[in-house]
Amino acid sequence: MNRETVRRRIEEIGIIPAIRLSSAEDAIFAVEAVAEHGIPVAEVTMTVPGCTDVIHELAWKHPDLIVGAGTVLDKDTAERCVDAGARFITSPGLDLEVVEFARQQGVVVFPGAMTPTEIMAAWKAGADFVKVFPCSTLGGVSYIRTLRAPFPDVPFIASGGVSQQTAGDFFRAGALAIGVGRDLISPEAVRRREKDWIRELAHRLLQIVTEARAPVEA
Question: Is 43 assigned a catalytic role?
Fold first, then answer.
């Protein structure tokens, strides 16, 4: 799966589940559960114990799954994640070395950015997407809408505080995709291994995205 295919699939799906759980077993269960129910993409954060082993196992077992690495703070970590099989790299902030490394490796990369200056720097460096983070703290939907005017060609991923209640509004404001945590990956559902619970959350969120992307009738 090359860089262009991964980028296109992220655009199509529009939802990036952020996996922040307390064990490798929980993380693998969560990723497989959401993939089984229509969201075959996941960001395994570096805070998950044994995160690179999790990425490696998921990439090996599920070649059609778009598994990436999140909370990547430096080039060395990015290199370990790519070696493990990560198909994308994302971070909470902008590290130009990480962006350049990912581009050299043919791996999709979307750094975090808060300000217009950071957005410009990320886009000029060759980021595939720009993750506006932490979005809710910056003004949420209204901030994405405001950014669309000066940056009409930058594909934004809204992340940080996005919920099922606000997901549709982010798309209507101009976000290309959203990063979602607990509103999709319920820690209690994972603890209890409740796939039906996660299925309900996944289906609900997919429906919200579909409706938000539907053309507005005149």
Answer: yes
b/e per residue 142-155 (b: at least 16 CB within 10 A): ebbbebeeebeebb
Secondary element (H or E) of residue 112: strand 112-113
Tell me the per-residue pLDDT of 147-171, one tens digit each, with 9 for 90 and over: 999 999 999 999 999 999 999 999 9
89 touches 80 (CB < 8 A)? no
Q: Which of 11, 32, 43, 57 is catalytic?
A: 43
Sheet strands side by side (includes 66-70): 108-110, 88-90, 66-70, 41-45, 15-19, 177-180, 156-159, 130-132, 112-113
> Does pTM surpass 0.85?
yes
